[in-house]
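A reminder before we start the practical. When you read a complex entry, don't treat the lines as separate problems. The point of joint prediction is that each chain is placed relative to the others, so the output describes one connected object in space. Small molecules and nucleic acid strands, if listed, are placed in the same frame. In the example below there are three entries. Take a minute to note the order of the lines before looking further.
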Amino acid sequence: MNENMTPAIEVRNLVKSYKDVEALDDITLSLAANRIYGLLGRNGAGKTTLMSILTGQGYATSGQALIFGTNPYEHDETLSRICFIRESQRYPDDFTATQAFKAAAMFFKNWDHELAQRLCTEFALPLKRRIKKLSRGQLSAVGVVIGMASRAEITFFDEPYLGLDAVARQIFYDRLIEDYAQHPRTIVLSSHLIDEIANLLEHVVVIDKGKIMLDEDAETLRGSAVAVMGNAQKVADFIDGYEVLHRDALGSLAAVTIKARLTETQRQMAAELGLELSAVPLQQLVVRTTLAEATKETTPDSLEALK
Amino acid sequence: MSNIVNVARMQLINKWTFLGIPMIILVSSTGLTIAIWAMIPKQDGVTTLVSGSGQAVMWYFLALGIQSLTYTFPFSQAMSVSRRTFYLGTLGLFAAIALGFAILYYVLGLVETATNGWGMGGQLFALGWIAENNAAIQVLFYFVLMVLLFMIGFWFATIYLRWKTTGMLVTWIGLGLLLIAFIGFLSLNKMWMDFWGWVGGFTVPGLLLGLGGLCVLLAAGSYLTLRRATT
Amino acid sequence: MSVIDDSRPIFLQIAELIENDIVSGEIREESQVPSTNEFAAYHRINPATAAKGVNLLVESGILYKKRGIGMFVSTGARAQLLATRRKEFQHQYIAPLAREARKLGITGAELTVMITQSLSTEEPEGRGIR
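Here is the predicted structure of the whole assembly.
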């Protein structure tokens, strides 16, 4: 019972600063066990830094990062419950994929050899070739196979689809849902692309410039914004009072994304005004929200700087 | 504990690095030396042929110290192994291998003496000033020498891993300055004679103690450096 | 390929897809519906989300759970759904239809003729366009 109450991942006021930059700027986060999370953000937003600290591969400047309530840094017992293959993971120079899997089988106690084999076949991974001679996509596939077959209680996938073709990506998503359904565990998918994985996610965390911009259930997010298009004046009247995420104008026409869950009556009203309503995909919603937050945050600062 | 053993097993997944290559170096350098000796026309007055090719394997251990860290440390991190476990597993494995080779050297030294220097009066393993000590000291001497070379490689690799090029530069410059200061000190005080006298006075057990201490120092330094290293 | 879109929470869409199949008779009453994992795999969505959709229908009595076996369609589920949908029909289909007709200047009499025509040419059992 207690184990279930402890979040799989808990981060409190985490800061990681390098000489000239704050890679993580006071991050606080709590992720419950056995869900699929999306850790989203642009390249360089701080995703990998955060995951490194969460897996004891890196260390924080200040603040806390706890895995099942314990700091994973140099803590073998906690580390053994985690699997994190970096996007830029390095393997021993002379290792073949088979040898890497052999090693993984020694360290991950839940390792599923059959799953690994099946994935290798589906990805058409050359097992006898040295890893350093593999293509970018094949290298990603090695990481995906280790991440999946490790069945670690918390598994991080760092930009897992890099270089994978559409078919291979679909295989990854399908196998992930399948295996997760049979063996529920905490999965963190880190990505700068959202569209393809949007439907897999239960919860979304967006990070930008080392700060959390969004931390929300995916289902709550879906349909939480709407794009209103039509005559600029009518659009302006209609969206009055709502939080505007994005604004586009073309002559007398306007397209405005607002944070709103419209009622049926409002939809009818929009239709009567000749306004067109359209859904906002998760990817766009995240981008809009992130940008809106970013401008909100930086405006006072930049004004200060101008003085 | 089991993970420390697993790290050693991981290092041995590719048998060549830790076992195959040193054996090949040992066999080929020995074979080559004996072949060369066989081709040298016997000169009058020369009774023993001495060769340093027995050291070849030891120099490989320097490279191995660098390799075993740079190749496998980032991977061990992905295998969810702590730095401490990686360190103990890798060093433990090397200590075992070094001990094996040290015993092999001793045995080869015995064979050398028994066969009158491979039938040619050669000296490869049973070098005079070591062979005159007892078995334990001989084995220990080779062991410490191998571990020392491995530790030097390993330590340099951890410095590079943690502080990259800057760390390397600072280390080399630091070592260079130390050396210059040392030479300068001896020269200014006209103590070179004393120094060489001091070196010449070393006994094998004394040397063992000194080098052994250096090993421990390097091992501790490597661990402290590795503790905060990131890939 | 996906019938899932971004406009609304996915669990609502899953619930609606199952409802549609019950209304059209694709899934008969007292027969088993696919498991949440099957829904998840088929629609490539999070299993927890699929479960939420199914649970919505359990709460409204459309589906019921047989312990250890799975989810089944309740007796009377179709009638219940039809009643709800009929209630929504005016609101969801007739109102926008009337609005568009007014815009185009179609009179009530003309509209009636059109509707009568459509009803007689299109097969009555066709699945709702949703």
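Discuss with your neighbour: DSSP finds ten helices and two strands in chain B. What might explain this?
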